Amino acid sequence: MFLWKKKKKKKKDIASNDWPFADSENVACFTSRRILKGEEWIQYVFHDSEDGAWQFHPQSGTPSSDMALVTLRQVFDLDGSIGQLADLPLGWRAWRQSPDAAWIREPNT
User: Fold this and answer.
1) Coil, strand or helix at 51
2) Across 13-96, where does the E strand assignment appear?
3) Given this model, what pLDDT does residue 17 score?
4) pTM, whole model, 2 decimals?
5) Is 53 exposed, middle or buried (0-12, 13-18, 19+ CB in 10 A)?
């Protein structure tokens, strides 16, 4: 007699279904500790041409003493509006005047 075991269904990562970036969720990126603490909002985004790194900075800038290395998913979870920049080309930057304003894009020259 054979006993058939049901295969366990793998949990579907619902959040991944809506992931807007070509980069994986765990790609490393740079941001400010003040953004992570909710003390400031993301005003500037850079998509580096040299290595494809993402950078997320507040209006006041990010001195090296305030820099944090986090995953792209962590930043996206803090501010889902960065998903609008998923197609930002390498070597470009984006900024906005307020947390609710539209993103403005241009080559980072």
Assistant:
1) coil
2) 28-32, 44-47, 54-57, 67-71, 92-95
3) 63
4) 0.83
5) middle
